[in-house]
Amino acid sequence: MRDLLDDDLVDEGGDLPAVGGTGLDGTAVDDHPRREGAVGDVGGLHFDLEGDPACEDFSDRLVSIRRKELLAIPVRLGVAGGEGKVDAILGALRGGYLNVLVTDSVAARKILDRAKTI
Asked: Residue of 22, 24, 34, 64 with fewest CB within 10 Å of its CB?
C-alpha cells in the first residue's frame, strides 16, 4: 500500500526506549537502539546522527515500512520540535528520511548550530 502514497507525515522519534523480553520464537530480545548509535527513528527505522541506518537487525524485525519504500515517497513531512529532538531531527534530515520539516524556532536554531559543529 505504501507504493500508492504521494506523501507521508511522520513524527520523528527521538526517545528511544529499551526493548526487552522474549520474541515470538522464544528467543531473548535485548536490544537498545541507542547502544548501537541510534539518535532517532522514523517509522521504526533507526538512524545515527549522520543519517545512516542504525540497529538494522532490530528494525528488520519490526512490522514497519522499509527504508527503500519510505525514501520512494516523494514528500516525507516530519513534525518534531524542542531541544531534545535536535540530534534526531538532524539525523533524519541527513539520511533523507524527511525532506520537509515543521519545527519550532528553538529546535531550528539548535539544528543549524549543531550541523556546523559536526
From this structure: 24
- Taking each helix axis from N to C end, the angle separating 86-94 and 105-117, rounded to the nearest 10 degrees, works out to 60
This prediction has a pTM of: 0.74
Residue at grid coordinates 528511544 = 16
Query: How far is Cα 84 from Cα 115, in angstroms, rounded to an integer?
Result: 15
How many structural domains comprise the chain?
Answer: 1
Q: Is 59 helix (H, G, I), strand (E, B) or coil?
A: helix
Q: What confidence tens digit (pLDDT) does each residue in 43-65 have?
A: 889 899 999 999 887 777 778 88
| CATH at 99 | 3.40.50.1360
Query: Which residues on adjacent β-strands are paired with residue 20?
Result: 30
Per-residue pLDDT reduced to its tens digit, 8-35: 545 555 555 444 455 555 555 555 677 7
Under 8 Å between Cβ of 78 and 10: yes
Asked if residues 114 and 100 have their Cβ atoms less than 8 Å apart, the reply is no
CB atoms within 10 A of CB 83: 10
Nearest to 62 by CA among 88, 99, 24, 92: 24
